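Dear support,

We are seeing what looks like truncated structure output for some complexes. This example has two components. We would appreciate it if you could run it in full and send us the complete token output so we can diff it against ours.
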Amino acid sequence: MSFRQPSILPGFGLTFGFTTVFLSTIVLLPLAALVLAATSMHWGDFIHTVLSARALGSYRLSFGASLLAASINLVFGFIIAWTLMRYEFPGRKIIDALIDMPFALPTAVSGIALTTVFAQNGWIGQYLEPLGIKIAYTWIGVTLALTLISMPFTVRAVQPALLEVQKDLEEAAETLGAGRFYAFRRIILPTVLPAILTGFTLSFARAVGEYGSVIFIAGNLPMKTEITPLLIVIHLEQFDYQGAAALGLVMLVISFVMLLAINLIQAWGRRRHVGMAR
Amino acid sequence: MSRAVMAGHAAGETSRPGQRTWAHAIVRWFFITTSLLFIAAVLLAPLATVFVMALSKGIEAYLHSFADPDTLAAIRLTLITAGVVVPINTVFGLAAAWSIAKFEFRGKSVLITLIDLPLAISPVISGMIFVLLFGLHGWFGVWLQEHDLSIIFALPGIMLATMFVTFPYVARELIPLMQQLGNNEEEAAITLGAGGWMTFFRVTLPKVRWGLVYGMVLCNARAMGEFGAVSVVSGHIRGLTNTMPLHIEILYNEYNFVGAFAVASLLTLLAALTLVIKTLVERTGYRRR
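Here is the complete output from our reference environment:
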């Protein structure tokens, strides 16, 4: 097989050439610089940087809070998607459009706004303060910011999947005496499970790399409320490019693993879907 | 007698699918209330706070904060950056979609994955890679300094970082759309003697126009709102290399809350406008894949 199948349409050389050249200059070359900078380090230095106590503390917060945020979105994202798809209530369409707000809203704006609402004297923070719950400048605040910015992923992944649930199957199950929870577990859940997992992974991947909204609410104390992207910025500000590149490489590898996981989950979902349709 | 009917009698009701029962009503109430409370706490309260804080010292203080020359410079820089980056990424998106959707070639799926790559990368890393290339201690740092050129801590760096993070937006809307719409019309146009450019402008562009608008609007929103990547390359020089999101950070850290939230209110309105355009485009029947 030749590189390209024949077509009567023109412009392949021009568009393909432009695409690959532009992609290489803007995306691939800079990423190669990161990999080279990190791998040109001495092994000992590399290990020392990526496994330092401060780095480990930042991974714990970044991954822990992201995992928690993705889990919160798993539950609430499903509930919101279900509400929007199954129930009719005033303002439903506006809420549906608003779900995408965290994607459109600049992260710096979400950051300062969340901090203000959940600070000790904020609208919600003032009611939590007497209960001994501090949100701003703690790991809870970090989780909250990550929850907000990754919320749309689960909702938007689950919504189309809920459309695919065959209503006649659901009704048949009820007619045959299945309890509501039983029908949910055996009919709805299997159909939407791949979508829920995709949403979870996308949320997690987005949350791990997030910077803008978190730094305002985090407090940024080393080992306690310092996320990995902030630690990278601190290395850069001290002109420690190699240290920054080393931490960047760790995060990059994790991003690739997440990307791979998303693709595998989606392929699995498609296979299941085809299998069920037969 | 079926189990359903017996269960129904036992519960003192006739259980027909689709019929409203008490249990249904409670579940419905629970789902709607939980959803609304969650959205109100994490989304609506912060949005409202932006405007309440911006107007906390009155409308005059709000308007006055836009008279600050540094704020105006930040707004100008953001507009210039988006004005350069969005058209370039739109041309790229059109080219990428044309080559990927109209032709069959080897390695296509790899190319699509690579185009989506910037979406999977932390904004901080997206900025850092340009510092590694063009920063003072970067690969080309010495050469740039000898020739008195600056990319990092200057406008070109801001544009490069913004271009990187907004790179996939137009392409990833257009590629599936063009693939779905097929090549029949284009092939007919070429067969009837139209040139390549004419086919593109008269046939393809009208076909994909809503996808194009959709992608450009999202690309613009991200370009104007990007914080992490731009923060790393900008150097935060007031009045020179501060975009709107970066200026928000500076004002906020100076406890100038009216100023910070005034700039934030502009970006919030931009986000609202983005959502309105997005919803209108979806009304035309264009659905995101």
